[in-house]
User: Which sequence fits this backbone?
């Protein structure tokens, strides 16, 4: 799964961290996924049927597992996001990116603070927040490589796909806070990134990653309250999302 390696390298370069493990070696099949789901309940599993991420600590070691459904992988192979992005492949692309983000941020956090750092509901909320930010940045990176220069409409499409569409209603208040809350907090933080410009973006992003969830939440809320309307808040068009074919030549 070479694409997973490509995404991992992009994340590692972005955060200036080496995960110390190849995510490709953590990919499991349906049987092992079912075993891990039965073992952990819903505590460490994504709800999507397309992909799931599991982790646990055993003998002071972090264990990771990633599951990607054949259907999703086949879609990404037929419609390679490195060549074009549209409604036909953007959702599988985002789900793929989010699971890789979960895995890498778990290794980063475990390296920072050991088992205690990766336990509890707050850490799960933190993983969702970072995944929303990473999904935005990765989709933006791919769209820019396909449709440079990045136009206002392109940025609005990226924002809608990676952030706005995930702020939906959940029956379970806990899930509403974890998933919907992550989308809203991530929106505020990426507005900040767009405002500071390329030279400061990496420093802002890396500093934000290192904060505990309580401080991440406080910072994002403060940014949301202080942020004026700008280009990053442009409304996505109502028509079907445009594709981004690779330019010829």
Assistant:
């Amino acid at each position: 799964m070479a694409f997973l390696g490509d995404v991992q390298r992009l994340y590692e370069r972005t955060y200036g961290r080496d995960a110390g493990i190849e995510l490709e070696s953590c990919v499991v099949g349906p049987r092992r996924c079912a075993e891990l789901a039965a073992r952990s309940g819903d505590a460490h599993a994504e709800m999507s049927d397309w992909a799931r991420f599991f982790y646990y600590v055993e003998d002071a070691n972090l264990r990771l597992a990633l599951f990607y459904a054949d259907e999703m992988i086949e879609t990404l192979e037929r419609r390679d996001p490195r060549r074009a992005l549209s409604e036909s492949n953007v959702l599988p692309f985002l789900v793929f990116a989010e699971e890789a983000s979960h895995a890498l941020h778990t290794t980063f956090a475990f390296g920072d603070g050991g088992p205690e750092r990766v336990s509890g509901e707050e850490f799960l909320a933190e993983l969702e927040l970072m995944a929303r930010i990473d999904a935005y940045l990765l989709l933006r990176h791919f769209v820019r490589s396909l449709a440079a220069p990045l136009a206002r409409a392109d940025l609005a499409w990226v924002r809608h796909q990676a952030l706005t569409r995930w702020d939906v209603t959940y029956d379970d208040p806990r899930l509403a806070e974890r998933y919907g809350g992550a989308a809203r907090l991530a929106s505020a933080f990426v507005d900040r990134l767009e405002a500071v410009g390329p030279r400061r973006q990496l420093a802002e992003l890396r500093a934000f990653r290192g904060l505990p969830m309580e401080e991440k939440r406080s910072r994002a809320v403060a940014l949301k309250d202080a942020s004026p309307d700008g280009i990053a808040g442009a409304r996505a068009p109502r028509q079907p999302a445009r594709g981004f074919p690779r330019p010829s030549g």
